[in-house]
Structure formats: C-alpha cells, structure tokens
Q: What sequence folds into this?
C-alpha cells in the first residue's frame, strides 16, 4: 500500500475536480478485450479522443478516462503508450500539468452517485492506494470545485448552486495521485497530447490497439462524425478495439448509430473494417437520452477500410 500522506497538492494553475465514473465503459472494454488476452502481446498503444468533460458548467471537469485506463494497465504490468486528442486547449493543459485527481465527498442529490464511488474505488485498488479524504479543503483547491456553480440568470437557481457549493466545501474531497507510469510517460513522450479536432488530426495508420471516443460524437455534425470515425478506424491496427457510444446529451443531439436514427449502420461499419462485438443498450431512458455503448473490433484486413465506402 502506498502512503497516502505522500500526496502533496502541487501548485499548478489548472485544477478541476474529477468525474470518477467517466471512463468506466472503456475500462471494461480494455479489460475484457485486451488485458484478458494480453499475455505475450507486447505493448498496448491506446488512443483517447475527447478526454475532457464538456463545459456546460463553464469549466471542464478533469478527464478521468486516461487515468482510469493507465491505472488498470499499470496494475496489469502492461507496457503501454497513450495518445490523447482533444480540441480544447484547457483539457490538454490540464492533463499536461495535473499531478492529483480529486472529487467532492458525494452529494447523492447532486452530481455524484454509486457509479462514481465504484469507479473511484477501482482506481484506488488498481494503484494500491487507500481512500484519502481532505475535510478542510485548502484554499488553492476551493476554486477547483467551483464548476458546480452554474452561471444562471435565475437567482433561485444560483442560490441553490451556492448552497451546493458551500456543502461541498464542508464535506471535503477524495484525493488521489495520478498513476506513476502516466506521469513518467508524459515526461518521456510515451504519453502524447495532441490539441486538435479529431476530424482534421493526422494519426498513424494501423497503429493503435485500443481507441476510446466516448461522449463526443453527439456534439459534432454528421460530416465531422464521419471524418472522426474514419480517422480512428484507419489508425487502429487489425484486431484493435474501438469503443463508441450514442449519447444524446444536452447541447449535443446528432445521432450516430443507425438504430437511433444516425448514419453508422452495418454497411458503413463493414466499409470501415469494423465489427461490433458488444452492445449495451440502455433503452429504458427517454428517446432524447437513449444511451448505447458499443465495443467494435477492426477486422484484420485493413484494406477493407475505404473512405469512398462510407455512404454520404
Ligand atoms: C463530453 S466530453 C467527453 C469526455 C470523455 N470522453 C467522457 O466520456 O466523459 C467531450 C470532449 O471532447 C472534446 N471534443 C469536442 N469536439 C472535439 C473534436 N472535434 N475533436 C477532438 N475533441 C473534441 C471536448 O473538448 C471534450 O473534452
């Protein structure tokens, strides 16, 4: 077990709280599809597209996905490289500078739930850490949880937000370090950060064994979605795994999968060289909030991928 007292709060300018459950589905996919078969497969090249949380609260929450995946790879003693692409320079700066992650002690009436708790515990377990809670939040961390204060013109809503914020300050935060391997790889270039639009980003062909592009495509128009999916499909190597989802978040409503009214159906997947290996359809939600998570594998014949093959 690591000594939790060794965690120090670094004086970094970019610090936002973490949404622990982000990355839970990619973590499951990585474990089930790659790590269970990993004996002797060599290093894993991981691509994460859109690592930050959206900015509907005026501030990006910390991207937990890279740290969840890195912690699991570290726990499995799996050698890895990671490339993270995000269009938001704040997200890239955050990952570049971050040394700790933290989130407020749960307020079940607000934004955190048992999924966050489970994800946080998995993360701690992967890294052999015990849960550490700071009850008196240091001044330099207080502004980091201010994202929960919604900038609203509604005075009543702002009053509630203020109470929530004050409550969070009273309850304290869970705090943990970032995986050592992640920090080391960030320093030596094995974790690479790219600020850019995935639809315009040049990535090496036939390179990544795993790609997560979650909770992002719904915010893009159809043409950009197509370019983004094409880009990551080309960059996967044969047998590589891609996780994508349908998620009609507020502010983003472009459907993706054909069964939800989008363009990505079986013919398009075939032309991209992808096949679906697992689907979780949370169809009990309202149509506006339908959530479908899919795990896909790139078929081993890369020549199947052809940009012309994607129907306009
Ligand atoms: C809603 S967050 C998703 C974060 C994380 N993947 C998750 O599942 O919680 C969307 C992220 O994608 C980034 N993003 C939006 N459009 C993008 C684009 N065209 N290319 C790359 N990143 C983009 C945003 O900056 C943000 O960090």
A:
């Amino acid at each position: 077990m690591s000594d939790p007292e060794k965690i120090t709060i670094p004086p970094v300018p970019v610090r936002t709280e973490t949404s622990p459950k982000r990355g839970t589905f990619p973590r499951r996919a990585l474990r089930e599809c790659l790590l269970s078969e990993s004996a002797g497969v060599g290093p894993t090249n991981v691509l994460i597209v859109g690592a930050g949380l959206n900015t509907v609260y005026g501030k990006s929450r910390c991207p937990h996905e890279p740290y969840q995946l890195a912690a699991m790879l570290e726990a499995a003693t799996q050698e890895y490289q990671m490339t993270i692409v995000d269009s938001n320079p704040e997200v890239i700066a955050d990952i570049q500078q971050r040394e700790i992650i933290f989130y407020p002690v749960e307020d079940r009436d607000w934004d955190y739930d048992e999924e966050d708790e489970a994800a946080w515990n998995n993360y701690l377990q992967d890294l052999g850490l015990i849960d550490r809670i700071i009850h008196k939040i240091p001044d330099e961390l207080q502004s980091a949880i201010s994202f929960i204060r919604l900038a609203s013109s509604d005075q009543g809503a702002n009053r509630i937000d203020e109470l929530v914020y004050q409550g969070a300050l009273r309850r304290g935060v869970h705090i943990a370090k970032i995986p050592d391997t992640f920090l080391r790889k960030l320093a030596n270039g094995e974790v690479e950060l790219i600020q850019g639009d995935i639809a315009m980003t040049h990535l090496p062909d036939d390179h990544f064994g795993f790609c997560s592009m979650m909770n992002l495509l719904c915010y893009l128009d159809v043409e950009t979605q197509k370019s983004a999916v094409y880009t990551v499909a080309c960059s996967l190597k044969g047998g590589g795994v891609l996780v994508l989802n349908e998620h009609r978040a507020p502010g983003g409503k472009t459907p993706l999968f054909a069964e939800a009214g989008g363009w990505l159906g079986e013919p398009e997947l075939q032309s991209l060289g992808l096949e679906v290996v697992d689907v979780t359809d949370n169809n009990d939600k309202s149509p506006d909030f339908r959530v479908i998570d899919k795990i896909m594998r790139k078929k081993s014949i890369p020549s199947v991928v052809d940009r012309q093959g994607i129907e306009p």
Observations:
- Confidence is low (pLDDT under 50) at residues 1-14, 147-151, 301-312.
- Residues 155-171 form the longest helix (17 residues).
- Residues 22, 49-54, 65, 85-88, 91, 197-199, 214-216, 219-220 surround S-adenosylmethionine (CB under 6 Å).
